Amino acid sequence: MNVSYKRVYLKSGKEESLKRFHPWIFSGAIAYAEGEPEEGEVVDVYTSKKEFIACGHFQIGSIAVRVLSFAQETVDHAFWVRKLESARALRVALDLIGNPQTDTYRLVHGEGDNLPGLIIDIYGSTAVMQAHSAGMHVCRLEIADALIQVMGDTVRNIYYKSETTLPFKADLLAKENGFIKGGSTDNVAMENGLRFHVDWLKGQKTGFFVDQRENRHLLERYASGRNVLNMFCYTGGFSFYAMRGGAKLVHSVDSSAKAIDLTNENVKLNFPDDPRHQAYAEDAFKFLDRMGDQYDLIILDPPAFAKHRDALRNALRGYTKLNAKAFEKIRPGGILFTFSCSQVVTKENFRNAVFTAAAQAGRSVRILHQLTQPGDHPVNIYHPEGEYLKGLVLYVE
């Protein structure tokens, strides 16, 4: 029997996006709520004609309800198990579970796995769970129990890391990062046969950028005999792939000294005492200004320049400026891997910014590949906003 949840009623005509299975309900679409639901509580959503249409987590803010189901059901242990089993089945199909060369992947990708507000990344036997909504925070212990059931003994530790991702206005208890299950100090994971340290305690996101796995693998194919510059290197992912690909030299640059320390540790794990690699803790634009024309493979993978739509114009200027610098300096016959991870920047926005940069630099440029996020970061077809990672591989004459 279904639990009876508090009800939220929509304004007339505001159910159209839900009929197209979009998982967000904005605050402006709500006429009123019965019983004053609290942040993170599950609510049933009804149309203005009093017809049930969805259930989801309620939250104060622009996105008022994140839809968990378009059926009237109870959000309990069995619900979480079913959702996580569906997510796991996709990763099995992608050959990411039980793969001896890769024990690092995203198990749950928010809306892409019909679990809006929840991220779970797997690093060996540790799952790092991140809540981006009050509702997922409230349900974290139930989700952890379901995760252990679904993953069996392949996951022995669950680290909860949501201090910086939860809505800052939400009055939530127990927001501290920490282990929910287990407590392993083994932080070395493997991706395509390469090993790396994961800083899930203090690192960005869940500790590593899992979404660039396939793009790093592609870079490896282009690295042979080239002088490689990895800008915004973070923990050096592209750098050690370039080294395995036979690069002549690899220089890693990041403004964070801690990121550079981790990059050096990761290079050492895979290529101890290899003289081809050097790392610099320096501002990207300053480094690009002072560097010569020694590089013929450059990676530009900056942090999100725009996290909100009102920052879009400045972000596009930033992408143009950054890529123009690379176009000016890269050797003839060079290859540029350039990315945007800003959700509000569309593929067209990004391509236009790079086109403008190429024109400003006066170089002949051809597109070799158009890149996106891998299959373990799926895009829900009803939620195109989930396609956040855009990349171009360019040949520069």
How many helices does DSSP assign? Answer: 10
**Which architecture of the largest domain does the CATH hierarchy give at level 2?**
3-Layer(aba) Sandwich
Uncertain residue segments:
none
Q: Helix content range of the residues, please?
A: 25-40%
Strand order of the largest sheet: 16-15-14-17-18-20-19
Distance between the termini: 67 Å
CATH topology of the largest domain: Rossmann fold
Q: What portion of the residues fall into strands of 2 or more residues?
A: 25-35%
Cα-atom radius of gyration: 22 Å
The best one-word shape is globular
Whole-number average pLDDT?
93
CATH class term of the largest domain: Alpha Beta
The secondary structure category is alpha/beta
Number of domains: 3
Can you write the helix and strand succession as a string?
EHEEEEEHEEEHHEEEEHEHEHEHEHEHEE
The CATH superfamily title of the largest domain: Vaccinia Virus protein VP39
Number of strands: 20
Major sheet details: 7 strands, mixed
SSE order and pairing:
Elements: E1 6-10, H1 16-19, E2 24-26, E3 30-33, E4 42-46, E5 52-58, E6 63-69, H2 77-93, E7 104-109, E8 118-123, E9 126-131, H3 134-138, H4 140-151, E10 157-160, E11 178-181, E12 188-191, E13 194-197, H5 213-222, E14 227-231, H6 237-244, E15 249-254, H7 257-270, E16 277-281, H8 284-290, E17 297-300, H9 312-329, E18 334-340, H10 347-361, E19 365-371, E20 390-396
Parallel strand pairs: 1-4, 9-10, 14-15, 14-17, 15-16, 17-18
Antiparallel strand pairs: 1-3, 2-6, 4-5, 5-6, 7-8, 8-9, 10-11, 12-13, 18-20, 19-20
Helix pairs in contact: 2-4, 5-6, 9-10
